[in-house]
Amino acid sequence: MKSFRSLRHRLLQPLLLLSGIAALSSILGMYWLESNALQKELQHRGQLLSTALIISAETSSSLADFHRSVLSLASEPSIDSIILLNQDYQPIFSGDNFPFDKQEGEFEQIKVLAQHAKDTRLSIGAVSSFNNNIYKVVSLIYISALPQTNVLKPEASLLLVSLNTAQAKKEAIISAIWITVLFITIGLIAFSAIYFLLNKLVLIPSQRIVTVMKAQGSEQNESTGFIPEHELGLIGQTLDHLTQTLNAREQSLKQALLKAQDASIAKSQFLASMSHEIRTPMNGVIGMLHLLNQETLNEKQQHYTQVAKSSADSLLTLINDILDVSKIEAGKLDIEIIDFDIHQLFSDLTTTMSHRIQNKEVELVLDIQEVKEKMVQGDPGRLQQILTNLLSNAIKFTQQGKITIRASLATLNNSTSNEHNDFQLHCDVIDTGIGIASDKLSQLFDSFTQADSSTTRKYGGTGLGLSIAKQLCQLMAGDINVSSELGRGSQFSFSIKLGRSNAPALVNPSREMNNSISNQQQLEQYKNQNILLVEDNTINQLVALSMLKNLGLDAEVTENGEEAIAKLKEFGDQYYSIILMDCQMPIMDGFMATQNIRKGDAGDDYRNIPIIAMTANAMQGDREECIDAGMSDYLTKPIDEKLLADCLVRHFSNDRK
Question: CA 538, CA 518: separation in Å to the nearest integer?
């Protein structure tokens, strides 16, 4: 596990590294630019000097006069030597003042430059490969003096001018250094300004937020005192408000529950509350994606919406896992006992999970030959939750090979103590994946624990799934264990108890689809019925109205219970047929509104109107609270359009009493 480092250190190091890279780049860049500029300047200077000598040669009356002109020009510090060559590359001027060292490589280079000068009649420059401080310019030259003793014949000759670049290079380097210092200074000023702003706007507020959070953890009253001038200010203000809210809730819980609840129950209550707050916007996200998928989209748009829907479903699964942990710790998770087709459950499970291995070289095998019974009693939803979690892990950690689901159903001999526990179901999920290290197996079923908890882990996950699976198995009078070898795969095995069922086996696997189609057809006859939607969240209003529109129904909207009762009073004589009621709203919530409607505050015509709760509350007991308040039915957000249709058909079909 990586050691903790503050944001200040994490930001300072890359900023310093970037500053160093910028400084080095500026040095190299400026040196390169100065070198190019120097080369162009030297060539230009050589060409000007050559032009002056050509003019002097053409106006000299004798070779001696031209020689003197050359000597006067050669006195400049930047000129290393000036040599006049005939067309055979023999020096016309020779002696100590004009040494001409015919090194083979340099001589060949001069011959190439001289030939180019002859062809183009231009001055040609090149940096000598023998001396980096010498720059040579070769020019074609004619002497036009009258023929006489020691007078150059009027024919083409070559002028070789060697310029000393040492001083110029020194000046270029000094110039590059000064410009680089300027850039570095500007960079340091910019770095200091950026760091100062980050420190003021991010680091100091973050440290204050951490301090407040730590103080909250130690039950000390602290606040950030932030003014919402920017996003962190809003976070700090929200944290202050949340801290105050949590403190108030904690005090209220302590007064109401006294010593009956401990810190674990308080945590569960908090998680349940946060789950409600998250599920409300999730209803908008998933609902809008569902509605968007029903529109005419191109292939790219369909792909985007499918990816978004998959991500939203994954987030909802995470929320449900957290909620399950809360229910288990609060002792509010109950196991349902109903009749179900266990063969159909395994078949549906493999069909659902098969699409996840389409891009892998993995075979999914189902072996339920030892499950002789078809109809059993138990909680199919929780059984499917356990199997889905184990299969998801197997698929995640297996890139090739095989995943096997093997199940057997054995009759219990001592089942008289509980009439439902007539069978023991034993299941194995075996994969050929990466396996688990032996030192990690003992902690695998602990909450919030993962086999690989490093920040660089390849596979995601919260560490909740296996913990929930274990506790579900124990709630169903069973247990779960694992055996694994690193690099050789894993085998998860669990057992639960199931009851004996007297219900007949289902013979129509498409019944659910037929029911859905039937409900859609039944809603056609109620399309003229008036529905009242009571919802304060504008996004959830839009989702509900769009779903109703897809079902061929319309609704009117009010934003709280008080407005709903006023609307019912305005339209009497059973104008509305059904009310869709949110539970948590300002001014008057759904529970109070329902109780007032049942008492007759909206008129006697509406005492028995069907009121369907549409709420983000999903804890055990929330449904009972809605029913106790007088509501007729209960739908959990995010709302499923099919379940909404089923619920509407059920209550449209029942006349008011």
Answer: 31
